[in-house]
Amino acid sequence: MSLTNAGGSPAYRILAIETSCDETAAAVVADGRHIFSNRVASQIEIHRRFGGVYPEVASRQHVLAIQTVVEDALADASVAHVRELDAIAVTHGPGLAGSLLVGVNLAKGLAFASGLPLIPVNHLEGHIYSNWLYPDRSPDAEYSASEDGNGRTQRSGSASDQFPALILIVSGGHTELVLMEGHCRYRLLGATLDDAAGEAFDKVARLLELGYPGGPAIQAAAESGDAGRFHLPRPLMRPGRRTERQPDAKASSLPTVLPVRGEHRFNFSFSGLKTAVLNLMRQLEREGTEARQPQSAADIAAAFQMAVVDVLVGKTADAAAEFGVKQVCICGGVSANGLLRRSAEQHFAQIGLPLHCPPLFLCTDNAAMIGAAAYYRQFYGPARQPSPTGRGHRQDAEAVARSTPRDQPSEPSARDFLALDVYASLPLVDSMQW
Ligand code: ADP
Ligand code: MG
């Protein structure tokens, strides 16, 4: 099947593979924006009995699932053979080494056999680019009709090419505020000093025996809870008076907070909040109240969720103001949280700044976001070491619009394959200023 964009160039289609944790995922994405297929085999049911991801079990499950998932993703996109595509992309870190290896090895094999370029993608950059995907799963018939004169489409609901952009990454493993100065150009403004936001949701859900994964369980319990019954701390925040920061009417009895001043103003810390929940539960027990009784658990869940959202929205709002950004994007598993989305929407609508959150199916781990990040890294990314095949050179947006990516030489060498590092653990390592 041959597709062209408005510039008359063939669409650049990538098969993306993601196995960094406990989701086996594959997708076909065109021009970094259009999702042709997006398959995710979740292992949640398997890990539920352990209360968290069991790494060895996760990698074995990836081995069992990956072939079917990739075949299904290709079939959904009407791709008869990998050679019809333009590149293979794979998450090469950060993540569980045993899980990453499964995806990386399959991607290497497919690329070597087909002669397609192999694009290693940082998982966090994948989460960032989930905001650039079009939220509707675009059928190919729709593909060229919606292009603008530059071969790129701006459709409501997904991020635009307006920079600087502020990115809040909130997942099970990471909580980071990132200033995105252009495609694939990042500055890390702050990160968690201990637990990630999603990890805190998971741990507090375990304390309250609400189930796994903790984020959706806390959110569900909080719906019948009173966030004002208990007060929990807002770590690395200080008392303030800006009432517009109040994320929800239910919280009107809570003090308003602003980020602390100084070096930690864009950093986060959630492990003390988890301890505060534990201390609150012990105090309730001492007073003769069963902390896990449904109403108490719901009230604690609501108070905890409110505290996390207060901190996330407060710091994001301050960073957006300080750096004069043109748009704000939230991504990662915790961006599925309803209160976080509502609170952020409420704040940024008030100040007239575009806010993007991926649709729910793109918040948690998936391969479509890896395909999007791979496209931008391939054509907009910072200069890399020139490879023997001539791939990896810098191309600016205009050059991309004019060129035909398919025409570039793409024979992979053994050196390219060996260069893939599955232990990549630093986010966005080749362009961040630490
Ligand atoms: P990873 O950290 O492996 O990249 P994801 O990006 O898929 O994982 O994020 C998973 C995390 O998102 C988990 O910690 C989970 O509890 C959290 N999460 C998922 N849905 C919600 C929600 N509705 N509210 C809060 N947290 C959520
Ligand atoms: Mg993730």
Give the number of domains: 2
Query: What is the CATH superfamily of the largest domain?
Result: ATPase, nucleotide binding domain
Write out the distinct hetero groups bound to the structure. Answer: adenosine-5'-diphosphate, magnesium ion
Instruction: Give, in spatial order, the strands making up the sheet with the most strands.
Output: 3-2-1-4-5
User: Care to count the β-strands?
Assistant: 12
CATH architecture call of the largest domain:
2-Layer Sandwich
* Anisotropy-based shape: globular
Q: What is the helix fraction of residues, given as a range? A: 25-40%
- Characterize the biggest β-sheet: 5 strands, mixed
> How far is the N terminus from the C terminus?
44 Å
| CATH domain class name of the largest domain | Alpha Beta
Estimate the mean pLDDT confidence. 82
Report the uncertain regions: 138-156, 243-254, 384-434
β-sheet strand percentage: 15-25%
User: What value does the Rg take, in angstroms?
Assistant: 22 Å
Pfam family, one: TsaD
Protein name: tRNA N6-adenosine threonylcarbamoyltransferase
Domain Gcp-like: 35-135, 160-371
InterPro entries: ATPase_NBD (IPR043129), Gcp-like_dom (IPR000905), KAE1/TsaD (IPR017861), TsaD (IPR022450)
Structural notes for this entry:
Keywords: Acyltransferase, Cytoplasm, Iron, Metal-binding, Transferase, tRNA processing. Its cofactor is Fe(2+). The longest helix is centred in the last third of the chain and has 30 residues. Helices cover 36% and strands 16% of the residues. It has 434 residues and is of the alpha/beta class. The strands form three sheets. The chain has a five-stranded mixed β-sheet, with helices on both faces. Strands 8-7-6-11-12 form a five-stranded mixed β-sheet, sandwiched between helices. The protein has a two-stranded antiparallel sheet with strand order 9-10. 50% of the residues are buried. Bound molecules: adenosine-5'-diphosphate and magnesium ion. Adenosine-5'-diphosphate binds next to helix 5 and helix 6.
